[in-house]
């Protein structure tokens, strides 16, 4: 007798071990484990949001999004607008829609080890298989070319990159970008690059794959750059409109259109004033980073020197899960590096995009713990 | 040599014939074809939105949504809160997430003929097959029990209902609801009911399937009831939390969480004042409807007497696609009934939820056309 059962692919959505970590922490724990910058919306955007509510008609937009916003996004990338953008409910939706549009059951998708957690799950939910290549912990997490070449089979359909990297906080260099594009083009592999951290650069903005490759799909959002996570605005863009057209179709059936109140605000975020407002966020992040790396350095704690906020990948003494569990009980939540892939073993990821008093308190606990306890 | 091709299931997303209809209309055409109420956001909600922007921290919410909002939705249904709600980016996302969570390739899904267009496409995008049952045009679109029984096979996994119906504007009666639940329960068919038009009732609110059946998943939103389409707030709810748990997981990977600015506003929409503000919309719709049905009746034009706004299913002389095309060129956009399924043949769907001057102008054109031209 058949029963109402979930779809078979749902078995790939595992219970989050990180959730358990968070649940075991005291209620007043400081959470350095989030994927969110804990700063308020810039004042300029607050004011603009109030104006939008009073003066704009906030109905449905076209599925792909407000044309002014799509054009503004093309302007941001300095590329020509030709229906090559789909505005989505955050970068997550852009990623889901892109993968849904291109991935068949049985395909293989390349992801880095380590990388952002969600990629693997979405790929598997779509009945495809993940094949991972190494960012080498012995070599400051540089791309291991050999491991990439080995990971490719005739079933490899796409690659998902996070650049700058969550959890590493570093971006690929020009050589690595060129190599990836070359290898993927020769093997007809669709490159999807999640660039949500690109605007949180420390010294200089990393190269966008959009500037380099016609066949890449770029995913980005305003969640990190403008502290607009709760507004759910992201996008998929490519130089080629034909790569985006199927994503627009999928997006239509996923959620009709991205929230239009947020689309109007996104237009302000990408204006000259909006981009200036974003700089305040970068400055605050740079201050927090300075505190964190100075303190950790003085305490002789090793970490990967990041080029993009807000993540520091910090070396720990012993098993990273056990360290994270112990820290959690002491009131500081961090994410074990191996949650992002086996190459993250021996590290924890911290997000310094929180109020500075909380940051200093938690970094002091972290350093003290590292000094005194070996797990 | 393999190429970068879209996923096989994308072939089921057809080009919209309705889009061509809209494109062929003059720029100043009056659009009675939309699925949106063209009224502004109620003043009360505008004020509350401004307050939210000033005083709330609009970051990510938990995947399932703000707990206060999930509780408020349970209060609305007068059911107990037990993690049995998932807040989504509109009803569309709730529907997509629900189907993604339950439907395997090869499954069959029951839909009504006629019904809302998107159901078929989503089912087919997921590799499943649609099997349709009749709402009988010879019998005021009542449920044809026999056709429902015939449509069921051992592969039938779910049924998607729209109640009150888009495009019909009528709700199932108690007998039909009981019959559907009985048949589906006996055949272990998951019932998913889209109730987005329920709050736009004319005389009395139709029964929610939630009140009747423990095993049904209800989908709804504030897009129609509160003119909040551009805010993208919908939900999936069931009496049983275990039916919603997989939807929350899928939703997490689709878009992390529903827009949080909109979640805060939804909380206001469901407050006593918010529900009063919604009444203004119902009253305006009832006025528009009175004009439309009086005018059509006086012109001896037949239509299905609706019990819910904003759709009137109007009988036309001749082929409904040709009528819609001709009307479109005359500056009035309507949707041919057969776009919703073969049983809609000979009708057009009009949405009277627009400004009254536009409505009167377009109804006059429609009536004149019907009187003078037979296609």
Quick overview of this protein structure:
Two copies of one chain form a homodimer. Chain A has about 375 residues and is an alpha/beta fold.
What would you note in describing this structure?
The structure is a homodimer. Chain A is an alpha/beta fold. Chain A has two domains: about 10-40 and about 280-370, Aspartate Aminotransferase, domain 1; about 55-275, Aspartate Aminotransferase, domain 2 (3-Layer(aba) Sandwich). The first copy, chain A, has twelve helices and 14 strands. Chain A has helices at about 15-25, 45-55, 65-75, 90-100, 120-125, 145-150, 175-185, 240-255, 260-270, 270-300, 320-330, 355-370; strands spanning about 30, 85-90, 110-115, 130-135, 140-145, 155-160, 190-195, 215-220, 235, 305, 310-315, 330-335, 335, 345-350. Chain A has an eight-stranded mixed beta sheet, with helices on both faces. In chain A, helix 2 packs across helix 9 (about 260-270), helix 4 crosses helix 8 and helix 10 (about 270-300) packs parallel to helix 12. The longest helix of chain A is centred in the C-terminal third of the chain and has 27 residues, at about 270-300. The radius of gyration of chain A is 21 Å and the shape is globular. The mean pLDDT of chain A is about 95. The interface between A and B is large, with 68 and 67 residues.
